[in-house]
From TrEMBL:
Any single Gene Ontology cellular-component annotation: NuA4 histone acetyltransferase complex
Coverage span on the entire protein: 222 to 502 of 511
Enzyme Commission code: 2.3.1.48
Residues in coiled coil: none
Active site: 184 (proton donor/acceptor)
Enzyme category, top tier: transferase
Gene Ontology biological process terms from the UniProt entry: DNA repair; regulation of transcription by RNA polymerase II
Protein name: Histone acetyltransferase ESA1
Membrane-crossing residue ranges in chain numbering: none
Family classification: Belongs to the MYST (SAS/MOZ) family.
Length: 281
């Protein structure tokens, strides 16, 4: 006895081709029904329009002039850029993007109404254009202080540190707004893994550099993380100790050793100085 919503969740698309990558779909996404019967769906990597044959995509590419996401480029450092796109002004683009991202997101309701969101699309530039790696969406106004609604790294680019860059960027925006923030709940398994990794790395980094006393509130101001996310993270790395009637933060040796090891990994970092952005009132 399945409910209608469960039935509609059965994966409908098998594979998609985006740019030069062929990717297997993970979950249901509400593409028009006839696309569910195709072996593979062809997606324009610049505007995310979708087609049933390679011929149709080819014809489309002849007319589609996009070589980067619409909207303002608000960040550029080396080959990495971020574009800010208003869901109200670029409805079609944002809907197409949501359709793609639903292929890899299980638990989120897909927002047909893209108006209340801004989309931050991350690209890597080469001689052909700015290729979308991933994005996150953000409510224009969040009553729950969410600073991110949905996050996705396209599967062909996952596990290379791009998700980390997206998360770091979402907190840079919060810092620029002078706000603290947290991602919308619930998080997926992969979302949780990525956030936990980012939170603990950032906090350990602050704690290692900051000799002396620092409070949870001060950590929150430095990072724009909520005190709740900070407390959970410190607990998970066993850094909260109760000593002489009060809580103290204390990193154990293994945590610090692992931190120094992780510094050797080559990573894309977000350069705050490369962000050219003012909070939209
Ligand atoms: N297994 C174990 N750890 C992982 C995994 C994984 N598959 N993926 C990420 N992590 C952890 C690791 O600690 C990793 O660091 P490491 O590679 O140095 O060990 C860290 O997260 C950062 O990984 P990135 O490479 O930066 O992340 P990625 O580019 O793969 O993107 C993301 C992460 C966005 C969650 C991606 O997995 C994704 O798009 N998943 C599908 C959509 C999704 O679930 N989105 C989150 C929904 S919740 C929300 O939207 C609020
Ligand atoms: Zn196109």
């Amino acid at each position: 006895t399945q409910s209608i919503s469960e039935i509609s969740r059965v994966k409908n698309l098998d594979r998609v081709i985006i740019g030069k990558h062929e990717v297997e779909a993970w979950y249901f996404s509400p593409y028009p029904e006839e696309f569910g019967h195709a072996d593979v769906v062809y997606i324009c990597e610049f505007c995310f329009s979708y087609f049933i044959s390679g011929k149709q995509l080819e014809r489309h590419r002849y007319h589609c002039t996009l070589t980067h996401p619409p909207g303002n480029e608000i960040y550029r450092h080396e080959d990495l850029s971020f574009f800010e796109i208003d869901g109200r002004r670029q409805k079609q683009y944002c809907r197409n993007l949501c359709l793609v991202s639903k292929l890899f997101l299980d638990h989120k309701t897909l927002y047909y109404d893209v108006d209340p969101f801004l989309f931050y699309v991350m690209t890597v530039t080469d001689e052909y254009g700015c290729h979308v790696i991933g994005y996150f969406s953000k409510e224009k106004e969040s009553l729950d202080n969410y600073n991110l609604a949905c996050i996705l790294t396209l599967p062909q680019y996952q596990r290379k540190g791009y998700g980390r860059a997206l998360i770091a960027f979402s907190y840079e925006l919060s810092k620029a707004e002078g706000k603290i923030g947290s991602p919308e709940k619930p998080l997926s398994d992969l979302g949780l893994l990525s956030y936990r990794a980012f939170w603990s790395e950032t906090l350990i980094d602050k704690l290692v550099q900051f000799k002396g006393e620092v409070s949870i509130d001060e950590l929150s101001q430095m990072t724009s993380f909520t005190t709740q996310d900070i407390l959970h993270t410190l607990q998970s790395i066993d850094a909260l100790k109760y000593y002489r009637g009060q809580h103290i933060i204390c990193l154990n040796e293994t945590v610090v050793e692992n931190y120094y090891k992780s510094l050797k990994k080559k990573r894309r970092t977000i350069m705050p100085s490369a962000l050219k952005w003012k909070p939209p009132h």
